[in-house]
């Protein structure tokens, strides 16, 4: 069993009958969704899923997981998702798979958020992983220029066909290659990005996660986050 599978299966244990569950996106969340699908089929688990991307929606539909959109539910009990980096103070970067917008919306309406990662994602400071910023196409060249002027090393994300990548909402992603985000500056950076016209969302997920499940060795490690 690989580490992503280990944490996906471990996290699925937190899913109980009757819950409304946010289903994350990416290669780690994939295993969570597979395990929930298995439990529905084999154990009669009864949940409603709220997906965070078209890819996860398709996977969940294939597995027969009942789904509702975020606008059809009163709340979300628990969201389980992957992450690209988690700092020692449990802040995160997400959006490596371009799903940050729906992920952040679902996470922000969730009573509890669990992140599942392999140990390579646990870092001291954020920023080695490029910070994704989702922007609307109109004005995106101006934002690229602004980020360049601020020495934030922006790169407009391309897809496998070398075309500009479009998110599930038809937006672009600008990745900021920051190398390191000082802990004291993380909130200010998030506030500044939120203030820019044309920025829809960014990949800094601050004060969101409640529990981190880390895949390492033969056993997952569970870290409770007190806020
Ligand atoms: O946009 C994608 C999401 O934020 C993913 O949860 C994140 O990129 C981690 O993905 P993976 O588990 O594939 O490393």
TrEMBL record:
Enzyme Commission number(s) from the entry: 5.3.1.6
Q: Which reaction does it catalyse?
A: aldehydo-D-ribose 5-phosphate = D-ribulose 5-phosphate
- Could you tell me which InterPro entries the record lists for this protein? NagB/RpiA_transferase-like, Ribose-5P_isomerase, Ribose5P_isomerase_typA_subgr, Ribose5P_isomerase_type_A
Q: Which UniProt keywords apply?
A: Isomerase
Entry's Gene Ontology BP terms: pentose-phosphate shunt, non-oxidative branch
The organism sits in which domain of life?
A: Bacteria
Q: Example GO molecular function term?
A: ribose-5-phosphate isomerase activity
List the catalytic residues: 103 (proton acceptor)
The pathway this protein participates in, as annotated, is:
Carbohydrate degradation; pentose phosphate pathway; D-ribose 5-phosphate from D-ribulose 5-phosphate (non-oxidative stage): step 1/1
Enumerate the residues binding substrate.
Answer: 25-28, 81-84, 94-97, 121
Function, as annotated: Catalyzes the reversible conversion of ribose-5-phosphate to ribulose 5-phosphate.
Q: How does it assemble?
A: Homodimer.
Can you tell me which family this protein belongs to?
Belongs to the ribose 5-phosphate isomerase family.
* Listed name of the protein: Ribose-5-phosphate isomerase A
Species annotation = Vagococcus intermedius
């Amino acid at each position: 069993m690989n580490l992503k599978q280990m944490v996906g299966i471990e996290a699925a244990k937190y899913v109980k009958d009757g819950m409304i569950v946010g289903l994350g996106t990416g290669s780690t969340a994939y295993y969570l969704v597979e395990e929930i699908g298995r439990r529905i089929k084999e154990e009669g688990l009864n949940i409603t899923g709220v997906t965070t991307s078209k890819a996860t929606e398709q996977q969940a539909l294939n597995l027969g997981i009942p789904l509702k959109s975020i606008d059809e539910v009163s709340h979300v009990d628990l969201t389980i998702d992957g992450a690209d980096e988690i700092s020692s103070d449990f802040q995160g970067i997400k959006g490596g798979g371009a799903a940050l917008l729906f992920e952040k919306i679902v996470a922000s309406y969730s009573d509890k958020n669990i992140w599942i990662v392999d140990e390579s994602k646990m870092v001291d400071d954020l920023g080695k992983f490029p910070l994704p910023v989702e922007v609307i196409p109109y004005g995106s060249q101006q934002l690229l220029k602004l980020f360049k002027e601020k020495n934030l090393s922006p790169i407009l994300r391309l897809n496998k066909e070398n075309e500009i990548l479009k998110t599930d909402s038809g937006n672009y992603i600008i990745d900021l290659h920051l190398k390191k985000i000082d802990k004291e500056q993380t909130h200010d950076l998030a506030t500044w990005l939120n203030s820019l016209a044309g920025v829809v969302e960014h990949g800094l997920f601050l004060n969101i996660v409640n529990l981190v499940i880390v895949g390492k060795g033969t056993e997952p490690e569970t870290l409770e986050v007190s806020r």
